[in-house]
């Protein structure tokens, strides 16, 4: 089945089996769209600057707001918490066990901050260059794309250990990454539009 939408999305995220969340370029609105009807079920706006990206776990959105930090909302867009951050160049972030993990590509690092925005840990590895995309499994494993190192790195949040999962020329300029826990698969997109699917079972 193919669904066509007459919009240009900056991000698209599957949040249930039949609903997606989308964001518009240079905007601060997130829309929930039914894959059954192709209609917008709900939209909400984040006050302030543009939305850089968002992730969704356990019925909550973690939204990266440019020049501010993070905003945590429920699926209806009700703000649960705002978390200022002085970090810059954040593209993707994920909430896991009451900690926020995000990449800072200019520092070749993954950072972890608490729910007040205080950085509590930094992770670096010589095999990870220009980290961009960040996602996680239900078991507490982070998956990070290396934009310039052409790879996927895993980070165990319990053991604080970075490992290279995949390194491949098809991952050149890898950006967004998404994890399907049901199928134990990673979906990775690159800047030039290539999409790769990896089994990690």
Automatic annotation (TrEMBL):
SUPFAM superfamilies, A to Z: NHL repeat (SSF101898)
Gene3D superfamilies given in the database record: TolB, C-terminal domain
Protein known as: Uncharacterized protein
């Amino acid at each position: 089945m193919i669904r066509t939408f007459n919009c240009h999305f900056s991000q698209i995220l599957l949040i249930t089996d039949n609903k997606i969340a989308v964001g518009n370029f240079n905007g601060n609105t997130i829309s929930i769209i039914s894959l059954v009807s192709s209609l917008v079920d709900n939209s909400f706006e984040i006050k302030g600057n543009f939305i850089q990206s968002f992730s969704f776990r356990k019925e909550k959105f973690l939204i990266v707001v440019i020049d501010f930090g993070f905003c945590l909302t429920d699926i209806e867009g009700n703000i649960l918490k705002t978390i200022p951050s002085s970090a810059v160049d954040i593209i993707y972030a994920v909430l896991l066990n009451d900690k926020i993990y995000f990449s800072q590509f200019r520092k070749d690092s993954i950072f972890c901050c608490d729910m007040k925005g205080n950085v509590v840990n930094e992770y670096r590895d010589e095999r990870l260059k220009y980290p961009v995309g960040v996602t996680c499994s239900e078991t507490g494993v982070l998956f990070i794309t290396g934009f310039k190192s052409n790879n996927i790195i895993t980070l165990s949040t319990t053991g604080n250990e970075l490992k290279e999962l995949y390194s491949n020329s098809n991952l050149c300029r890898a950006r967004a990454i998404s994890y399907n826990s049901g199928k134990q698969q990673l979906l990775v997109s690159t800047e030039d539009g290539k999409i790769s699917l990896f089994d990690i079972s």
